[in-house]
Amino acid sequence: MPKTYPVSLILSRRPCLVVGGGSVAERKVLSLLACGAKVKVVSPTLTQTLREVAEKGEISYRQGEYETADLDGIFLVIAATDRDEVNHRVAVEAMARNMLVNVVDDPPHGNFYVPAVVRRGSLQIAVSTDGKSPLLARKIKEELEERYGPEYGFLVDLLGEIRHDILDNTADPRKRRDSLTAILDDQVLQLLARGELEQAKERVINAYHRGRSQP
């Protein structure tokens, strides 16, 4: 299998198509919605959850079999039916239009894989085996979920706010670099690993204020 290039896609308000309405499609739809995507679903039937989401107007739903015209205006496609011939057709037609397309349970027929992801707020840790062993990726993900708790997401939010302020208010490139480096040291990570979020945040804030007070 070819090597892959890891990216984090910004899908906010991007039109995405999910072909399929079963439990796998449901997971894909919900993950796309969590990223702010505009999701269209095409399927003869839907799970109860997807039906409720459609009734709320959170997704657009066309009941029926996949048609080539369903690709019009779409940015990213996920083929998630239980019929290989349909999934392969979706992939071939989407790639002919240079679209991003993932075929669930058969990723080599698409042009991107969906990695196993640990999400802690804005912190995302993705694990991929280039499609060779999704099971190994999932097991590593489970280990990472134990290692990195919700407190890491809270710290990322704080670091993001401070970074934004430093970039906006520090003109000198060297001082900016030094300030960004100083707010996160090994001690902060050690505190976080022990679950001492408040102490870690206090250390970050103190380092930030020391950097601002220096000429």
From TrEMBL:
Q: Which residues form the Sirohaem synthase dimerisation domain?
A: 152-203
Q: Which GO terms describe its biological process?
A: siroheme biosynthetic process
**Domain spans labelled Siroheme synthase central:** 120-146
Q: What is its EC number?
A: 1.3.1.76
Domain of life, per the record? Bacteria
UniProt keyword NAD, yes or no: yes
Tell me if NAD is a UniProt keyword of this record.
yes
What catalytic reaction does the record list? precorrin-2 + NAD(+) = sirohydrochlorin + NADH + 2 H(+)
Q: Which InterPro entries match?
A: Met8-like (IPR028161), NAD(P)-bd_dom_sf (IPR036291), SirC_C (IPR042518), Sirohaem_synthase_central (IPR028281), Sirohaem_synthase_dimer_dom (IPR019478), Sirohaem_synthase_N (IPR006367)
Pathway info = Porphyrin-containing compound metabolism; siroheme biosynthesis; sirohydrochlorin from precorrin-2: step 1/1
What is the protein name given in its UniProt record?
precorrin-2 dehydrogenase
Source organism of the structure = Desulfofundulus thermosubterraneus DSM 16057
The top of its lineage is: Bacteria, Bacillati, Bacillota, Clostridia, Eubacteriales
